[in-house]
From TrEMBL:
Presence of keyword Signal: yes
Ubl conjugation among keywords: no
SUPFAM superfamilies, sorted: Calcium-dependent phosphotriesterase (SSF63829)
Provenance organism: Kitasatospora gansuensis
Taxonomic lineage: Bacteria, Bacillati, Actinomycetota, Actinomycetes, Kitasatosporales
Protein name (database record): SMP-30/Gluconolactonase/LRE-like region domain-containing protein
Keywords assigned: Signal
Signal sequence segment: 1-28
Length: 319
């Protein structure tokens, strides 16, 4: 999630946009190694609130996404068809910090198909982590502070925990799936906002929690100690102004990061300078999140500023 004031008037924003057709985009013209074959799988409807904020993948290659302002969880198939799985209940009076509207943000998936999402409303009764079982209805399983903004989300299925990045409170919460209790697992200046949005995207990778900080343009690594506590926060990448979420490529700690306002996906390697691999010319429209399955890369674009063509784009890792 990035610069959420863009949705302070979601209805007006949607009305300013045209419904878009579900046809493939023109071939990419600027995709760069290690990516190739970039194309838009699904053009979404901004007027209907289809601004995808976060993504997790199904075993069949379909993508589960959150539509941030519509309060929806949806599935986009490999045929480009979009199916709304659930709509979270609206607060009586939304008061979400920074944005003012109810926002569905991070999403994670368990092996049995259960989906978990973060929901920020600014109200005590709804803000927290919600669960959607296959064929079920959404239910809140853990409360989070109403004065925060839960954003990135990752599941540690082995230990029965969820990790949540709070963009306002500069905290990584650990939430128990067993009883819904929350713990401030990691805090520190590195996670704090520097004017607006702090901790944002979040991934569990190789025994650590990795977090992006939008205001500081950084990617952080927080080791998970043997006793489950957080180790020292390490800064692993800098200079990523406007970073939203990110995903690992499957090759060590190499990752792809979404730079929302720059309309770029950058490739980040340990110790190396970020390189631009996808741009607006390839179909990006304010990218928000990245997921990788094998050699296929999925990128969601929410059109927060372009106000045109929110979409799901696919590319291939070739190196």
């Amino acid at each position: 999630m990035l610069r959420l004031t863009r949705f302070a008037r979601p209805a007006g924003l949607a009305a300013a946009s045209l419904a878009l057709t579900l046809f493939s985009a023109a071939p990419a013209v600027s995709v760069a190694p290690p990516l190739s074959d970039a194309h838009v799988l699904a053009h979404l409807d901004l007027a209907a609130g289809q601004a995808p904020e976060n993504i997790v993948l199904e075993p069949d290659g379909s993508a589960d996404v959150t539509f941030i302002g519509a309060r929806q969880i949806a599935r986009i198939g490999l045929d480009g068809h979009t199916q709304v799985l659930a709509t979270l209940p609206a607060p009586a009076v939304p008061a979400t910090p920074l944005v003012g509207f109810a926002a569905v943000t991070g999403i994670a998936r368990a092996d049995d198909g259960t989906l978990y999402v973060n929901y920020a409303t600014g109200t005590e009764d709804l803000t927290g982590v919600w669960r959607l079982s296959p064929g079920g209805v959404p239910e809140r399983i853990a409360a989070l502070p109403a004065n925060g903004l839960p954003n990135g989300l990752a599941l540690d299925q082995q230990h029965g925990d969820l990790y949540v990045a709070d963009s306002v409170l500069g905290t990584v919460w650990r939430v128990s799936l067993q009883d819904g209790t929350r713990t401030a697992w990691a805090t520190g200046t590195e996670l704090q906002p520097a004017g607006f949005i702090g901790a944002n995207g979040l991934r569990k990778h190789h025994g650590a929690i990795w977090v992006s900080n939008t205001d500081r343009g950084t990617i952080l690594r927080i080791p998970i100690c043997p006793d489950g506590s957080a180790g020292p926060i390490e800064t692993r990448a800098t200079g990523l102004d406007g970073i939203d979420d990110f995903g690992f490529t499957g090759q060590g700690d190499n990752l792809l990061a979404a730079r929302n306002t720059a309309n770029e996906i950058v490739y980040v390697t340990p110790g190396g300078a970020p390189t631009v691999v996808l741009t607006q010319q390839d179909g990006l429209s304010n990218p928000t999140s990245v997921a990788v399955c094998g050699d296929t890369v999925y990128v969601t674009s929410a059109a927060f500023f372009t106000l045109q063509d929110p979409n799901l784009l696919l590319a291939r890792i070739t190196a």
